[in-house]
Automatic annotation (TrEMBL):
Pfam family, one: GntR
Protein name in UniProt: GntR family transcriptional regulator
Matches recorded under InterPro entries: GntR_C, TF_FadR/GntR_C, Tscrpt_reg_HTH_GntR, WH-like_DNA-bd_sf, WH_DNA-bd_sf
UniProt source species: Candidatus Pantoea soli
Keyword line: DNA-binding, Plasmid, Transcription, Transcription regulation
Keyword Calcium attributed: no
Superkingdom, natural source: Bacteria
Record domain HTH gntR-type: where: 11-78
A Gene Ontology molecular function term of the record: DNA-binding transcription factor activity
Record bears the keyword RNA-binding: no
Amino acid sequence: MTMIDSDEKPNELVEYARDRLREAILTNQLKALDSFSQVQLARELGISRTPLREAVRLLEYEGLTTVQFNRRVTVAGLTAEDLDSLYAQRIMLEALALHTRITAMDEEFLSNSRTTLLEMRIAEDAHDVETWSRLHRIFHLGLVLGTSRRIDLQITHLFDHAERYRRFYLGDSNEHWNKGAEDHLALQQACEAGDRAAAVRRLMEHYASTALGVLHQIDPHYVPALINGSCMMVRGLIFLD
């Protein structure tokens, strides 16, 4: 890991440590269940333990790390239970938000969203995962943020928590990358048509497909009761629309 200038301000040190550790976890430089002492991590990052502790706390909130009683930092594992809970919440919250937001999407917004999709495809073709991830975040959150501050914060937190599962699902699979691109385009087209039911259904199916794809790899015998239940509730929302 890169050392940092000691003249940086405390908040900048926290942000630096969080970003470096987050990147190392998401890119699998730090693997699931790897464990480190905070002294070791602080030394490698070239910072004191105070900003490191705050950075680790933020990562723990994202679901990327856990802190043991002896203050060792452990990279959180990918578990079926976490995946089931995470995607069930995402499906319900984002379906509700999209259902509410779609009527407020004007041509300028939809044009910007189309441009983001095009840029995502360019980044994908260039195998630029970091740029694709940034644009993917802009695309999805743009569709669902704006209902209320509380819901926006929860949606954003869950979206960021899901990043490792997304990257695990996509991996080097052209099939998964192409499926994702098709899902995004179908979602965009439903929004452009103002078809609230179709847009919500596309979003639900997109998230459920990703979650089940990951689940098949990490625990194929696990029954995702929460995801199944969330999909039933969203179908009810669509039926009543």
